[in-house]
Structures are given as C-alpha cells and as structure tokens.
C-alpha cells in the first residue's frame, strides 16, 4: 500500500519539481481587485509580495505542479516516466486551499500551475481547470492564475482553461523539430503549434468581443507564453533566436522564456553531461529584448553571434553587434534619431527617452550624458556630444577588451 503523504510533503516535492519551468511572470494581466469587500486577491495594490530573482523572473506566485507523475518519457525531464524520483499528487481542492492560504499570508499574488500528464492529457487538463474553477467560482479569487496547458488535450478544454486563467502557456520545449523528435518522442511540434494558434485566435476573438460587449467573458487577458530549453540539443543561439522570432510573429506570444538545461539524475545517454553556462541563458534574454524593444530584426541580432552561431559570453549582444558594425558609429547625441540612439551600447530605452527630452532644451555635453546613463565609459566610444568626440577610440583594435566586464573572484567570507 502506498504511503500517504502529508500536504507539506506534497508541497515540498511538487514545488521543487516545478522549478524547471521559467515562464511564471505575471506581467500583462488585467487589473482586478477585491475593493468593496467581495472576492479574494488582486493583481495590484497592497497585500501583494512582488519578489524577483536576479535574472528577472517573478517569484511572487505559488509555483507548483498538480502532479509529477507522467506517462510521457521526455529525456530531459526530471519527471519523465522512467525517472526514479519521489512522486506526489495534489487534488484540485488542495491546490485551491494552498493558494488561498499563501495569499492570505501575503506570500504570493497568485498561482502558477503546471502538471505532469497522468492517465491522459484530457484527464490532467480537466484537473488543472477544476483547481482554477474552485478558486474563481467558489472563492471569488481575483488574483493571478497562470495555467500550463497541454497541447494534446482537446481544444474545448484549453478554451475552458483560458476562461479562468490570466495567462496560459504551452511549452515548445526545444528550438528545433529534430531536437523535439529525438528528446521528446511523445510530443509533436505541429500539434503544439496548432494548440498555440487556436489559443491566439481565441484571445483575439475575446478582445474583439470585449470591445463590442462590455460583459463578454475574458479569455487569457495576459496572453500566452512558451518556454524553450537551452543546451539540451545542438541548437545554436541563432537557431533559438530564429525560432523565438517565428513564435512571436506567428502566435502573438507575450513572452518566450529560456531555461538552461540542467543535468538530471539517471539521465539518458543522449543528453549532455554538463549544463550550459547560465550566462548563455542571460544572453538569449538580452537578444530577445533587442528584438522586442530596440528595433533589431532577428537577422541583425544573429549578426552579433560568433562563427559557431552562439552569442559571445563575455559581452552583451548589443555591444557585440556595435563592434561588428563600427561604421555606424559614432552617432551625434544631439542629432541622432531615437532608432540610432537605441543602437548605442549602454543606452537603454529610458536613457534614450531622457536624452530626447533633454536635448529639446539644451545642447547635451558629456557630463549631461553621465547623469542620464549608468555607464558613461561604455557609451563614450559610440557617441559624439557638444564637447566630446571619440576620434580613434571607436576603431581601436582592443575596444572589446576595454568594454568587456571585468572578471572578479568573489570572496567567500
């Protein structure tokens, strides 16, 4: 007879099992609150503990699996069918009770719920939906809910999930079809894309209905996201960036998340023995940011890569691109367009906005830039100001080594 686990033991197992899923940010959700004494939870205001990891991930959600039992045998997954790990399973009611308990203690702002596939995709999806339904309908929970949906489940179930969740996501898992076929033989790339496409259509339809009918039901108002594992197969950073760009364009995703592959116990022989450096994951997020907010085309970001198709690890992709296209620099900070300024290493979107606002009133000097930017040393080789011209600095052969972050040995004590 199987040992009965306490709720605490289940939480330890299933919270730890959920840590490999990176896509848990709560940005973009529709604002809801419990003003007026009705309902529990909110996605804004007092009583919400927003905590972020150093890499920017939101950790203010109760992030758990419904179960880590799984009928699939994906090589890279710690919860795969053949894995020798402790197993546990929540009931939908237990998930709802935990979420409310954590929220009332001011630990979280909502729930991120994923699951291994137990019995069947439809059965598992039905259980995920039931947990969300209990929260929304029985407790009038107005906090954030992110449901990880299962592409193999019926379209009607994924549709129902979107009616309860602020955000839904379907993981593409790996950047190439060949990698998915080799490492996740139970998954099908076209099936995943089909589910994402249907979700996109339903989100757009719901937005249109809300414009015409104020009380039309919301459907995943925070959109959909996905995740790709980095370093489990031979895909280069250029492959990953190309795939991410296609996902954004084809399915209107809010975010593509990247998760560095982590070796697991009793791993398959087809997997790498070592994890990729975490800085590689960070560089991919930076490249993603360049495409989404800085006006870089995917092909331009790919030009920042090294000969092996991977982004350099010692410098960020924006600096790498600028060093390869030095003929585009320096730009005149007092005359350059917003698009040109956004290409300057060391200038973020906020700094560019401040520069554009300030130069309406006066001609900017180097001291002005120092007050508007975080790293004047990084900016200087690429800008012309009223009292500054980099002359030969922009073309120095050792400019990369001058601008690369210094490597420091951290003290243990």
UniProtKB/TrEMBL annotation:
Keywords for this protein: Iron, Iron-sulfur, Metal-binding, S-adenosyl-L-methionine
SUPFAM superfamilies found in the cross-reference section: Radical SAM enzymes (SSF102114), RuvA domain 2-like (SSF47781)
Iron recorded as keyword: yes
Domain of life (superkingdom): Bacteria
CC cofactor: [4Fe-4S] cluster
Every Elp3/MiaA/NifB-like radical SAM core domain range: 60-287
InterPro entries assigned to the protein according to its UniProt record, in alphabetical order: Aldolase_TIM (IPR013785), DNA_rSAM_put (IPR023874), Elp3/MiaA/NifB-like_rSAM (IPR006638), Endo/Exo/Phosphatase_dom_1 (IPR051675), rSAM (IPR007197), rSAM_sf (IPR058240), RuvA_2-like (IPR010994)
GO MF assignments: catalytic activity; iron-sulfur cluster binding; metal ion binding
Alphabetical list of NCBIfam families matching this protein: rSAM_link_UDG
Identification of the protein by name: Biotin synthase
Organism of this sequence: Erythrobacter litoralis
Lineage, uppermost ranks: Bacteria, Pseudomonadati, Pseudomonadota, Alphaproteobacteria, Sphingomonadales
